[in-house]
Amino acid sequence: MSRKLVRPRQGRMFAGVCIGLAQRFGMSAGLVRLLFLLSLLLPGTQVIIYLALWIIMPNEDRHPVAGY
């Protein structure tokens, strides 16, 4: 079963991007959040990427369709 890249409705801290990435790649949500926060100490476009993912990643369906 493939994992979709979606922003889950449960377990969000802000927009659900970090938990969505964690679920997609089979990682701990806390680890992804920590890595994101640590990346903010480095120069770069982390915030812009986060905002882009927030816009691009769809919300998880409230009532998933069976078989999909």
UniProtKB/TrEMBL annotation:
Keyword entries, A-Z: Cell membrane, Membrane, Transmembrane, Transmembrane helix
Cellular component GO terms, alphabetical: plasma membrane
Topology in the lipid bilayer: Single-pass membrane protein
Main location: membrane
Domain Phage shock protein PspC N-terminal: 3-60
Transmembrane segments: 34-57
Cell inner membrane in keyword set: no
Top-level taxonomy: Bacteria, Bacillati, Actinomycetota, Actinomycetes, Micromonosporales
Listed name of the protein: PspC domain-containing protein
Domain of life: Bacteria
Cellular compartments annotated: Cell membrane
InterPro entries per record: Phageshock_PspC_N (IPR007168), PspC (IPR052027)
One Pfam family, short name: PspC
